[in-house]
Amino acid sequence: MKPTKLSDFDEFDDMDSIAHARHEMAIEARKVSVRGLLASLAHPAMLESSAYDEILIDREFFEQFVVPASPAHERIVHEVIPELRRWLTLPHRGKQQRARYALIRLLGPEADVVLEGLATPVTDRGAALIGTLYALADHRSEVLPASLLEPLRKLIRPRELGKIMRKTGDTMMSSSLVLSLIWRVDSPLRTKVLLDALEVEDTRLHAARCLSVAGTRGGLPGEVLEVVRRHFAELIATIAQARKTGLPSRVAVPVAASLASLVKCDPEMARQTAEVLDLLPGPVEYEMSLFTPFVELVERSIDALPVDALEPLARQMTLPPPERLPAAAAAWVRLEPGRARELAAGFSRGGPEPEGRRWLAAAHAHVAQASRSAEIEALLPVRFLAMALAKAPLKAPAGQVVDILHTSVRTARTAIELREIVRLASALGESSIVRPLLARLAEAPFTIDQEFESLLPPLLVPELDDWIEQEMEGGNPHAERRRALGRALAQARAKRPG
Fold this sequence. Notes:
Layout: H1 15-28, H2 34-41, H3 59-66, H4 71-87, H5 93-107, H6 112-119, H7 126-138, H8 149-155, H9 158-168, H10 171-184, H11 190-197, H12 201-216, H13 222-240, H14 242-245, H15 252-260, H16 267-276, H17 292-300, H18 310-314, H19 325-332, H20 337-344, H21 355-368, H22 374-379, H23 382-391, H24 398-411, H25 415-428, H26 434-441, H27 450-454, H28 465-475, H29 479-495
């Protein structure tokens, strides 16, 4: 396939254009033959030094040979393998890389070229290692042989990852690539390797993600959970030292967050987290993604926490950032009602977050409980209770929901609150709220946006047509709302039978 040198593409002014042109030429020159397959693989540039997103120039064509589409494709694969092995001895790094990639994809992860590629020093021939890693990642088999664990483990050492990063340009991508391969290795030792990777900054996030897969498939194995608990306790103790020394450890917080993300519910880890949650997330440059696992662990384990741990958590309803509200609210709704009332008096004063956001978090926490306190429910503003029920309409008896809806329509303070109440009524088909809703829509603060308007048609039963038409004819003083009601009524009528 020609041209193959950059000088042959003088009409293009950047590498991306050259890469695109090369790809288009490859598609045009496709030929199901030995020469055609080799031509589609022959390119002098290595992945890390070119403008290509993938090692292959024409992946779609090559995949026809990985799972041979016909006996002719099988014969071509058999004939092309010796030539690809010869390419491994050539001085062209790009051809070496693509040859190794193709051989592994065609021969499988047990091929001799796999261990050879993984053992090649990164600094000497990065093309071989990168080609090997990408070929294993793309291989259709979900399980890799146990013999690959040790050479892959060596690659997650910080020094080796740094070398791969210099070849690929992305440390996170490099660690993700290697750790995802380790997770696929058929060996009982892979879990230990991934646990060790949790201690290294460049591999921590992706090691936790791999381990979390075990959690979603039925929980962490017992031996893994014990290691996680032990490491977590040590890290929480380090974070707790910030009460005397200042900001929490930059290393301890993200490692502990990774471990917290591995468990769904753990009373002891949740108790330890609750003791230091007020110290988190720590330095402002930490992303909230490092804080969320702590909050979710406490929220999921809240019913297993001792009573004396609840009030310190509930006091954090007024602390930034707002991401801590689900855990704090879950604690607040479980307090003794008198104490909950005292703390609620401060919702309007503490922190930069709007009071409504705190009440809404409390309402969501209340609705989520298996058994709810009537005394706590009486403390919640009805409009926020209705908004929470809109997300879980089956969490309360039907009669109670109707009463909540009517009260909420009368007390809603913003268009957003009113829209969420209408969402719940629409989901339940509770058209009895329409008449009080029409009265509220005649008031100045409320507007009907497109989303709000889409919720109205299910509520507009024939018995309400006269009321709607009265509003359209001038009962509602706002022209844009009259038009929105008219469109909603037209949609409702169009969907009626007959």
